[in-house]
Amino acid sequence: MSTKSTLVSAIVAGSIVALAFVLNPSPEQHRTKIKEAIAERSPLAGMLGMGALAAFSSTYHPLGVASYTTVNDRTVSIGALGMVFFIQPSQDK
């Protein structure tokens, strides 16, 4: 591999990592996704504010390039590159 292609690869990799740090979702983005997902899955729970309660009680955990939130030691959302995904907590604990 030539020096030029090695340098280009290093610059691209560095840019991707820097972008991941910059786009790491904030605690508020996680909380908004939790509220939306709970309201979408159960309109009654949404009306009663269950999503807001779960979002309020969530704990945000940043990992630099990614992040996640937990409620009662269960992961409920994960995020990276500006995207947040709600995870239905399992009931087997």
Describe the protein's architecture and organization:
It is a single chain. The chain is of the alpha+beta class and 93 residues long. It has one domain. Helices cover 51% and strands 23% of the residues. A four-stranded antiparallel sheet has the order 1-2-3-4, with helices on one face. Strand 1 and strand 2 form a beta hairpin. Helix 2 runs antiparallel to helix 4. The protein is elongated. The mean pLDDT is 90.
Give Rg in angstroms.
18 Å
- Total count of helical runs of at least 4 residues: 4
Which H/E pattern describes the elements? Answer: HHHHEEEE
> What's the main sheet like?
4 strands, antiparallel
Question: What oligomeric assembly is this protein in?
Answer: single chain
Instruction: Output the structural class.
Output: alpha+beta
Which regions are unreliable across 5 or more consecutive residues at pLDDT < 50? none
Roughly what fraction of the amino acids lie in strands? Answer: 15-25%
Give, in spatial order, the strands making up the sheet with the most strands: 1-2-3-4
Cα end-to-end separation: 51 Å
Roughly what percent helix?
40-55%
Q: Give the mean pLDDT.
A: 90
Task: Give the helix/strand layout.
Elements: H1 3-22, H2 27-41, H3 43-47, H4 50-56, E1 59-62, E2 66-71, E3 74-80, E4 83-86
